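lol forgot to send this yesterday, sorry. struct tokens for the thing we talked abt
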């Protein structure tokens, strides 16, 4: 059983060019994304404490994302980059959230599948960053993140399959994948993960 659908659009070459041209800004945004990813995993625990089958994996994911934040922050410190005072709105995630249905179960499924798509896109983009790096330490770091994010993309689909019919999960996941490509295509290209 396949635990995710591949994203159907590739990031534009202009995106990696923007990232490499302003890597300090990318690191600031990346740190923010890792903090939000950790919080998102814990928000599932807070909102769905009755979904006991997935709580341990959600906690593990939250801890791993927080460790990624710690690692990105260390890179920032070494480069003399400070964290921003506030985290700006991520239009990519906001637009995906706008696709989520209401109702406890529908929203639960949609949020899990949305998380899968976001993590899968992150894996694709971290691969591009790893391949574009000339510094071996940064290349290794982003390769590690690429593998980790790809794993997270699978985890959230597997979680959904604990509670929902397989066809319903894959139909809805396909909906998110198709719409994610349209959302990404409409976003301004900048030195940010999304």
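and heres what i got for the seq, position by position
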């Amino acid at each position: 059983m396949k635990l995710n659908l591949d994203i159907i659009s590739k990031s534009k070459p202009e995106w990696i060019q923007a990232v490499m041209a302003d890597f300090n800004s990318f690191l600031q945004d990346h740190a923010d994304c890792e903090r939000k990813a950790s919080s998102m995993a814990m928000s599932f625990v807070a909102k769905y404490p009755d979904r006991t089958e997935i709580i341990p994996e959600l906690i593990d994911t939250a801890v791993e994302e927080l460790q990624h934040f710690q690692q990105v922050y260390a890179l920032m410190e070494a480069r003399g980059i400070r964290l921003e005072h506030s985290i700006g709105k991520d239009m990519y995630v906001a637009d995906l959230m706008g696709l989520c249905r209401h109702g406890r179960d529908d929203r639960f499924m949609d949020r899990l599948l949305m998380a899968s798509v976001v993590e899968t896109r992150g894996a694709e983009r971290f691969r591009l960053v790893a391949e574009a790096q000339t510094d071996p330490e940064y290349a290794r770091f982003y390769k590690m993140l690429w593998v980790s994010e790809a794993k997270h993309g699978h985890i959230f689909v597997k979680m959904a399959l604990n509670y929902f019919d397989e066809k319903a999960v894959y139909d809805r996941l396909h909906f998110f994948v198709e719409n994610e490509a349209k959302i990404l295509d409409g976003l301004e290209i900048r030195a940010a993960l999304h």
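The longest helix spans residues 104-132. anyway ping me if u want another try
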